[in-house]
Amino acid sequence: MARAGLTAERVTEAAAELADEVGFDNITISALARRFGVKDASLYSHVKNVQDLRTRVAVLAARDFAERITAAIAGRAGKDALTAFAHAYRTFAMEHPGRYAATQMEISPEVLARSPGHLSLIQAPPAMLRAYGLAEPDLTDAVRLLRSTFHGYVVLEASAAFRHPRQVRTSWERGLYALHVALENWPPSAPRLEDRPREGV
């Protein structure tokens, strides 16, 4: 019998907290059961297995992440929106590393369709970038540039990979300005680099 007071929501919230402490990939049914002081079987009344648990955490994390992002960019456009988006992104990833990792988890189309947080995270970047006058396919290229830049930055920062004495935040802010300049001066369609003639050939 399930322990009184335990619900799928409580279990998911606790798993998200555990993910922030020990890493998303390290959450298990057993570790969570110890957190509640119950046997593993008590949790199986609320989640099917560890994959189901991690999927639930991913949905919860996407909701939290999306709320942070949408609140930051509300009423903003252009450089202000870009900067607010980036700071909200970096702050969430640094404050909630387990939840952030969960948002990178691949989920099924069925789960995606029922996850408002994931849908909001998909829709927010292109909506923000339209103020720069970008249209497809440039819009998708720009979204990919931002995502790869932000994700790469927070992953490297979290692992203490930036060893140079220059302040990381200073480099971050300079990088954001560079992105703003790039977005304002987005290049027209051009031949792929590998298709261009090589010098000296």
TrEMBL record:
InterPro entries: Homeodomain-like_sf (IPR009057), HTH_TetR (IPR001647), MT1864/Rv1816-like_C (IPR025996), Tet_transcr_reg_TetR-rel_C_sf (IPR036271). The keyword Acyltransferase does not apply. Residues 5-65 form the HTH tetR-type domain. Keywords: DNA-binding, Transcription, Transcription regulation. Residues 28-47 bind DNA. This is TetR/AcrR family transcriptional regulator. It comes from Sphaerimonospora cavernae.
